[in-house]
Amino acid sequence: MNDNKTVSLVLDNVSHSYGTTSVLQTLNLQVKNGEVVVLVGPSGCGKTTILNLLSGHIQPTTGVVKRTGNIRTVYQHDGLFPWLTVEENIAMGLRSVSDAAQREKEKQDLVELIHLQGFENHYPHQLSGGMRQRVELARALAGQSDILLMDEPFSALDYQTRLRMRLELVRILEQRPRTVVFVTHDIEEAAQLADRVLVLSGRPATVCRELEVNAPRPRDLTGSAVIETMKTILTELGLQQ
Amino acid sequence: MNSKNITGSQKTLPILLPVLVLVGVILLWVIITYTNLFPAYALPTPGAVIKSFKEEFAAGRLMNDIIASLWRVAVGFVLSAVLGIPAGLWLGQHLYARQACVPMLNFFRFLSPLAWIPFAILWFHIGDKPAIFLIFMATFFPLALATMSAVATIPSIYFKVAKDYNYKGMELLTKVTFPSILPQIITALRVSYGISWVVIVAAEMVGCQDGLGYGIWDARNGLRLDSAVCYMIVIGVLGMGIDRVLAQLTKLPNVRWGYER
Hints:
The complex is a heterodimer of chains A (about 240) and B (about 260). Chain A has helices at about 45-55, 85-90, 100-115, 130-140, 160-175, 185-195, 225-235, and strands at about 10-20, 20-30, 35-40, 60-70, 70-75, 145-150, 180-185, 195-200, 205-210.
């Protein structure tokens, strides 16, 4: 879907403030095609604002946001439409596919991809938190999507489900590669998932550390690559000597 | 543990208990009239009510009154739903319109619809129209206000998602806004149906020559309290029955989410 397309996502000297409160200060960010960028920072540091700028839901006070490609966001929770079934929610992502047979096939593939066969006609409130996030992911992957913005998608889940969902995400992205900007306060998550981690300072947010992680995915939580990355991030945040 | 017994009683109790209360109330009524605690002209006996029920039914009057009342409620109620829900949708989406109109809407909501009786009769004379008008005045404002506040409190995340997936204009309204408030609309419809069923009785006492309310008024004029009680029972039972029908709407699979969390 996004194989031969150049996808780009750029924040160029972007600052943003709500009224007199400055949330972002001259932020520069360039996301490469197919890259997984994870933004880590404390709550309230402006991570969600960055995603809203990237998706175009808000306009920056100063600076330029450039994007090519179709953007979809996966939210922390309640992003699914509760009046639609699993199947119908996924089909939202396929609205631009005009051929009905192809749409049906793609829908089935996605349900299989997230291992929810048999739950097609369930409503979101009948599913567990982890299942709901998988449906959100499938919906965001459906059809012409190039860039996934993920706004703490697993933070409302319990710890073990969160670990499982990280592995799921790695597996799913393996099959359907996308350019991903992932926002989280979870350092483990960043270390396990990212090609590149950007550590944000408190408000107004600026990037205080950029860090490449080259180890192949899936990465073991207790593996050296993850541990080393976590150490660096923790030190940067002043939480470890 | 005898789980079979528990599920058995769970099924029968909800039916058995209200039936017991009903039998108790009827028994109490029989005892009071039998012991002449009230004189016969002030409280009719169950026997007299059954007799008058048979009479009214045989004469065709009861059936005619039921149909007349149902028709007026249906027309008034549909009219206020057709106008009130869109009005609420519009107000919910426009902050300034909301700020401008809400005090006035609230004023009319708290104005008893019965206060409109003089105007109803002056403008629409006698017949279906004044009753329909009163039902409309009684239900339009609560319906519009309930729809409006439902729209105003739709979680903003739904609109963000809608934007990501290219819902615009009419499609946004019918596929996002409307389904997201449907559970609250169904509740508002049930509440305003309840109001209209109460109002129809009063409306028909003054503006009509038939209908369930007129039946009670007529019974009063003829000092036929047995007939009045017979009409009261019909009003209560029909009201409950139609509410049960409306309650079925809450069982639609695409609105269950609104009642289960």
